[in-house]
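hi!! sorry for the late reply, been swamped w classes. u asked for the two structures so here they r. pasted raw, havent cleaned anything up. first the sequence of the first protein and right below it the tokens
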Amino acid sequence: MTANQISVYSLNDLKNTTDDALPNYLTSLKFKQNHFLTDVRLTLGYVAVAIAGITFYFDHKLGWDATKEYTFHAVIAYFILNGALTVWIWAIEKGKVFSGEKNGTLISFASHTTKHTPVYSLTVRYCTHDVPSFDWEERNISAPFTRWFTSDGFFVAQPFQQWLASEIEVVGIADQKNADLGKSSAEEKVEDTVVVATPGTRSRKTKK
């Protein structure tokens, strides 16, 4: 269980905490993370901030008349970089929280949530180097945040890891123990509830 407590009513906090836990888990299984997407995003952001800072400094030191021409070009460059950053985040990254590989298998995870719905959804894509033209397989999985968050807002890693390992074959191969525990937990939930349907009605009975 993590020491940081969050508000269970904040969908952003629930998603961000889970997003942070995902790469930590995968790297612990020896998946090698590719930081290219993050590096490009940080570079665009830092360069834009640097341009704004340098422009402000010289404008303050030399005055508007001496720097107005440079300031004009700097402002254009700043907006271009911010536009590129926006396009990069929304069109290229598309919610990706992990991209990497292990033993020749490439894998990426993109997360998203729906407003007012406390469910964590992942789009997982993976392929192997020996597949012609990198024929990617894709899976969409989802689970409620209550599966790995306590009622008072603490993240519990094991249920989250069990869910991932049991749902994604590539992860399950790397973490067979959690994959087996996750599948057993899912089977127990199915066995614990029997749905009885009769004409025009539907009731739910719990097995004892």
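now the second protein. again sequence first, tokens right under
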Amino acid sequence: MAELHITGEIVGASGFSSNTLFCKWGVVAGRSWELLEGLDGGQSQVDEAHDGEMAVWSHPLDIHYTCRGLSGWPKLHFQVWSQDGHGRNDICGYGFCHIPTAPGMFDVDCPTWVPEGSAGERIAAFFLGGNPRLKLEEVIHTPGDRFRLQTSAAGVIHLSLGVIMKDFQRNHVQVG
């Protein structure tokens, strides 16, 4: 079987309305993929960036898959949260990106978005705080329902990924 090893880090984020941010992440893959080693999700620490600077997380990634087919290529999904001075958390953005399909080192920027919600939800968010949230987190990385959402652009998550592929060519898959 072919193997895919993803190493690297979630470097940080920029362009968000808040300066105190942390990230929840996960990786999903199709049925022909099996996670051999590593975590399929996690959370970074909170970083309080200075105005205009990137929030730095340097959160490590080390994920090892084996696969029987290429459908359902792995992808990373993210939730970026802000934390206020009282420890209250609020969603700042959702996003996802595919793992690169060639071996090597890659700097990946993952754009994020937030649901706009109804007019009533936007008014409540303005006066009370708290952005609208997704009911189902699967909407982040599955295409069907996501395209029907009304969203606004948020910030960008910066990744540094190393992709190692083993036995893909032996299984007649050309990469790179």
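hope this helps!! also noticed smth abt the second:
The mean pLDDT is 90.
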